[in-house]
Amino acid sequence: MVQRVTLRTRSSYSTKSNGKRIVKTPGGKLRYLTVKKAASAPKCGDCHIALPGVPTLRPRQYAQVSKRVKTVQRAYGGSRCSNCVRERIVRAFLVEEAKIVKRVIAQQQQGKK
């Protein structure tokens, strides 16, 4: 015969925040264990991949861990992945180079006149 398992909390509805699973205690009895909601990993703001080096936690846990856990030691650390940061740096460099080339061409045009 199967042992019956009764809820020990007031909420009996099968909602996302009220997950349960059955565990066997050391005394051999079956009990409900409350399961927390699964956390989603923080994503890169540009390419939307999960950020490597930043743990997957629930929002309240992020508030309770230190800053070094939530970021990596780089510009845009906990916000953008390394590939997107590299692209931003290269793009900014090329834009500055284009401005310099435009300025040099303008000076050469002035010299010819």
Automatic annotation (TrEMBL):
It holds the Pfam family Ribosomal_L34e. Keywords: Ribonucleoprotein, Ribosomal protein. GO terms for cellular component: ribonucleoprotein complex; ribosome. Residues 1-21 are annotated as: Disordered. It comes from the Eukaryota. Residues 1-17 have a biased composition (Polar residues). One of its GO terms (biological process) is translation. InterPro entries: Ribosomal_eL34, Ribosomal_eL34_C_sf. One of its GO terms (molecular function) is structural constituent of ribosome. PANTHER family: 60S RIBOSOMAL PROTEIN L34. Belongs to the eukaryotic ribosomal protein eL34 family. This is Uncharacterized protein. It comes from Rhodotorula taiwanensis. The lineage of its organism: Eukaryota, Fungi, Dikarya, Basidiomycota, Pucciniomycotina.
